[in-house]
């Protein structure tokens, strides 16, 4: 049984630093060691990856000597893994000096099989295929020698119309109904007696306006207002005497009174 934690701390001996790498955790057993000793163990190093040959071991670390599976190929797999070989006669016929070359005696005296003869025939056109019609219509012999009937000859004649009766007859238009309300609405709207049209650009000026003399007040108001700059003594915040002695009306006093807010009772 391990010593108590009080003795370890009070003995004054510093425990040696462990260099071992912990890769698995064991459950704490109170009969073997104290809780403090169990918590004083070094932390687990999760950065080490072992070659797990099997996934069924959980209680021990596998051996360092790894077991590897050596692949074994069959004869057929070895044959398929080889690169494809070039045809033996390819290199000889690769650099031909001319497009004409000698034909072997076996090729000249070869006999074609029935299947080759069948494939060598040109493709036949389907029985349902129809060629494009010509622009010029071909009239059959029966249509050229056909004799029309009396009814066909009668319908083939142009229709004649006699317009003399319409030109000589005096056409009387039908009587029209008179609507009083419609006539009144169709009349143009009359202008109001007090309506004044726009003045022309040149209009006559009366003799009184020509001889009128402007008063001193009118002459003063006609002059443009002169405003000084700030550096010349202009004060934009100056309140005029009229505004200082002005009295507010009862309505303005009523509107200037702050509104009473009602508090909500929760």
TrEMBL record:
Keyword Hydrolase among record annotations: no
Gene Ontology biological process terms, A to Z: spermatogenesis
Region (Disordered): 1-24, 241-266
InterPro entries from the UniProt entry: SPMAP2-like, THEG
Keyword annotations from UniProtKB, A to Z: Repeat
Protein name: Testicular haploid expressed gene protein
């Amino acid at each position: 049984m391990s010593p108590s934690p009080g003795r370890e701390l009070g003995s004054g001996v510093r425990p040696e630093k462990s260099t071992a790498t912990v890769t698995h955790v064991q459950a704490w057993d109170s009969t073997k060691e104290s809780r403090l000793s169990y918590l004083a163990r070094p932390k687990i190093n999760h950065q080490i990856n072992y070659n797990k040959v099997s996934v069924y071991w959980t209680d021990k670390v596998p051996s360092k000597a790894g077991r590897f599976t050596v692949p074994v190929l069959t004869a057929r797999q070895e044959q398929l893994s080889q690169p494809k070989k070039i045809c033996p006669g390819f290199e000889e016929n690769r650099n031909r000096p001319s497009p004409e070359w000698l034909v072997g005696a076996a090729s000249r005296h070869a006999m074609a099989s029935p299947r080759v003869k069948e494939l060598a025939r040109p493709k036949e056109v389907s029985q349902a295929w129809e060629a494009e019609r010509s622009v010029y219509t071909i009239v059959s012999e029966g249509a050229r020698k056909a004799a029309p009937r009396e009814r066909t000859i009668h319908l083939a004649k142009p229709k004649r119309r006699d317009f003399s009766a319409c030109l000589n007859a005096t056409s009387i238009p039908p009587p029209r109904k008179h609507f009083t309300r419609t006539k009144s609405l169709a009349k143009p709207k009359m202008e109001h007696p007090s309506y004044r049209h726009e003045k022309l650009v040149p209009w006559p000026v009366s003799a009184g306006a020509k001889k009128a003399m402007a008063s001193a007040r009118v002459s003063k108001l006609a002059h443009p207002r002169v405003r000084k700059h700030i550096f010349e003594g202009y004060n934009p915040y100056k309140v005029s005497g009229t505004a200082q002695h002005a009295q507010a009306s009862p309505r303005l006093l009523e509107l200037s009174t702050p509104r009473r807010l009602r508090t909500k009772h929760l």
